[in-house]
Amino acid sequence: MSTPTEADVRSALSKVADPEIGKPITDLGMVKSVAIADDGAVDVGIFLTISSCPMQTEISQRVSTAVSDVPGVGAVRVELDVMDDEQRTELRKKLRGDRAEPEIPFAKPGNMTRVYAIASGKGGVGKSSVTVNIATALAERGLSVGVLDADIYGHSVPRMLGSDAKPTQVESMIMPPQNHGVRFISIGQFTDGNTPVTWRGPMLHRALQQFLADVYWGDLDVLLLDLPPGTGDVAISIAQLIPGAEILVVTTPQQAAAEVAERAGAIALQTRQKILGVVENMSWMELPDGSRMEPFGSGGGQLVAERLTKAVGAPVELLGQVPLEQELREGGDAGTPVVLSRPDSASGSALRAIADKLAVRRRGLAGMSLGIDTTRHD
Ligand SMILES: Nc1ncnc2c1ncn2[C@@H]1O[C@H](COP(=O)(O)OP(=O)(O)O)[C@@H](O)[C@H]1O
Ligand SMILES: [Mg+2]
Fold this sequence. Notes:
The chain is an alpha/beta fold. 34% of the residues lie in helices and 19% in strands. An eight-stranded mixed beta sheet has the order 8-9-5-10-4-11-12-15, sandwiched between helices. A three-stranded mixed beta sheet has the order 1-2-3, with helices on one face. Strand 11, helix 8 (255-271) and strand 12 form a beta-alpha-beta unit. The model is unreliable at 361-378 (pLDDT under 50). Magnesium ion (MG) binds at residues 127-128, 151, 154, 156.
């Protein structure tokens, strides 16, 4: 067999995506050198974005596998180096243009990412569970999905997504970790252990702004925001920062819970945000004999949907009812959302059906000026 050419090897490398940025390493200036010996042995030099890159093993493996697959290639050696400041600046410019000030991509005209803010009147109704399950279900369908844990005080997204990875920083960009195909950022990634966060309104607003502008989200199809419970500062900040965000209201079937959920939804009226729909959680429990028990009563979701329909003067749909089920709680605790761990369970299928309704067509590249391809998900 003939010795492979450098072009063969580079073409194989163009199919290797950086795990954090999600774009080909050849487009990111990460390929330092390619050397091919007469016996087909290949040495590849790779620039990491930062020296402590948590993804270095993953990158080496991806490079090694891709190059080994080229016909005629013998032993593959990957040597890692680190970008210098100038190279990092180039990378930053490539990813987000030459702007001095970071801006929120989701607020720009023509942006294709759908932003869904998950809201509830009170805590403990399953807002975060609904968020991570919809996120992973959408990612499984091939959409590019991000989750911003905006519940600064009650952050639980990293645990539910099963990753305590920390974001890495490349110049002024924060690279979000990814698990189950979902990129996510949470204040929990920036605090020590379980230290409580005691921020006030203006600091919260700045933190959200940073999470939206400084985090390199890539070309998302959907960004889900797990809001703190209630109708507070964060909801208003989001309305200011991303006016196009749509609100998804989560409630339990209880009348009292429905009333507070309705208030959370009504804030959207004041901020002129669109209401995407209502999810009722903990709707019933299936008993061994097949009958249903309703520990939290019934009708809350429908009630909220009807009242919000009246309030906004446009139909607000009850998108689904999720039963109370041990599998869902276990999935959250174990870090594998029930839509993945038990997709056919009652709660898993209910959540997948809701995600199906929210699945949108993948964003096009119209208006994008990155000059590089987005990663393929399919
Ligand atoms: N349908 C359900 N069945 C069983 N447990 C649930 C269900 N929904 C939520 N839980 C559990 O209830 C707790 C609170 O849910 P969570 O999603 O954290 O609520 P919130 O974000 O609204 O505070 C979690 O332990 C979660 O696993
Ligand atoms: Mg929560």
